[in-house]
Design brief:
With 288 residues, the chain is mainly α. It has helices at residues 3-36, 54-61, 63-95, 101-109, 116-127, 132-140, 153-177, 182-189, 194-223, 226-231, 239-249, 253-277, 280-287, and strands spanning 40-41, 47-48. It has a two-stranded antiparallel ribbon. The two termini are 37 Å apart.
C-alpha cells in the first residue's frame, strides 16, 4: 500500500472507535424506534408488527399533542431567555476576574456533582408549604398562612433555569475568554466609554458563545421530563412527559416511538434553522 493511501486511511482508522460507538449506541436504537413507530398496539396489549400510520395520524392530528408541544417550546424558549439574561453577566464577571477565576469556575461546576433529580427535588424543600421559604415568611410575619408555590409553570421554569444555567454560563465564558481585553482598552483610548466599547466590541464577539448556550439550553429544556414531573402540576406536562407516559406507564411502545420521533423532528428542524442563519461553524466557535 502506498504512503498516500495509508495517510488517506489513517483519519478513518482513528475515528473508527468513535464512529462504531455512535453507530451502535445512537443510529441502531434510533432505527428500532423508527420501526416501532409504525407498529400497532392491539386491544390485548400486544404489539402488532407491520406498517401502520395510526400512531403518526394520532400524534400529528390530535390537538392534545399539538398544544403540549407548543407549550413545551414556549417553556423552553422562556427558560433560554432567562438563562441568557442571568448567565451572561455571570460569565462576564468570571471571565474578567483576576486571580480567583479557578475558584469561581469550581463553584460553577459544583451543581454537576449532585444528581439532577436531587437538585430538582430540593426545590420542594425550599418552596413547599412547609419549606424554607414559607417558614421564613411566616417567622417574619409577612404571611399568616403558607403559600402554595409549587406545581405550576413558573416553578417548572425555575427548575429548568437551575438545571441549565451552568451550561449557558460555560458557553458564554469560553467565548468571552477568547476575546482580547486590550480591544476594549483600545476603544476607550479612542474616546469610547466602557459601556459603548462593550456594546460595539465585546458583545458582538461573544454572540457565538451566547448562541451556542441558547441552542443547548433550548434543546435540553425541551427534551426534559424530570423537572415538569417533579415540580409541575397536571396541566404543566411537557412533550417528553407524554413519551415517558406512553412507554413506561402504558407500555405503548409504538405510540411512544412516534411521539419521540415527532419531538426529535421538531428540535432537529430548529437546529437546521439555526444552522441556516448562524451556521454550525459559529456554534463550534462558541463551544471551543
Amino acid at each position: 500500500m502506498s504512503v498516500e493511501a495509508r495517510e488517506a486511511r489513517q483519519p478513518w482508522v482513528l475515528l473508527s472507535p468513535a464512529l462504531t460507538a455512535v453507530l451502535l449506541l445512537l443510529f441502531v436504537p434510533l432505527a428500532f424506534i423508527v420501526v416501532y413507530s409504525f407498529w400497532l398496539r392491539t386491544a390485548t396489549g400486544a404489539d402488532q408488527a407491520g406498517f401502520y400510520l395510526d400512531n403518526w395520524n394520532e400524534a400529528l392530528t390530535d390537538p392534545f399533542y399539538r398544544d403540549i408541544l407548543l407549550n413545551t417550546l414556549k417553556i423552553a424558549g422562556i427558560t433560554t431567555v432567562v438563562c441568557a439574561l442571568m448567565g451572561y453577566p455571570a460569565a462576564y464577571f468570571i471571565a474578567r476576574s483576576k486571580g480567583n477565576k479557578v475558584i469561581l469556575l469550581l463553584l460553577l461546576m459544583l451543581p454537576f456533582w449532585i444528581s439532577y433529580i436531587i437538585r430538582t427535588m430540593s426545590w420542594i424543600n425550599i418552596l413547599g408549604v412547609s419549606g424554607a421559604f414559607n417558614t421564613a415568611l411566616l417567622s417574619l410575619g409577612i404571611i399568616s398562612e403558607p403559600v402554595q408555590m409549587l406545581y405550576n409553570e413558573t416553578t417548572v421554569i425555575l427548575g429548568l433555569v437551575h438545571f441549565l444555567l451552568p451550561f449557558m454560563v460555560l458557553n458564554v465564558y469560553v467565548s468571552l475568554e477568547g476575546i482580547d481585553e486590550t480591544l476594549e482598552d483600545a476603544a476607550c483610548s479612542l474616546g469610547a466609554t466602557r459601556w459603548k466599547s462593550f456594546l460595539e466590541i465585546t458583545l458582538p464577539l461573544s454572540l457565538p458563545g451566547l448562541a451556542a448556550g441558547g441552542l443547548l439550553c433550548f434543546v435540553l429544556g425541551a427534551g426534559t421530563y424530570i423537572t415538569p414531573l417533579v415540580l409541575g402540576g397536571p396541566t404543566d406536562a411537557m412533550f417528553a412527559n407524554l413519551v415517558f407516559e406512553a412507554i413506561i406507564t402504558q407500555l405503548d411502545w409504538p405510540l411512544g416511538s412516534a411521539l419521540s420521533l415527532m419531538l426529535l423532528a421538531v428540535l432537529g428542524a430548529l437546529v437546521l434553522i439555526y444552522n441556516h442563519y448562524l451556521g454550525m461553524a459559529q456554534l463550534m466557535k462558541g463551544l471551543g
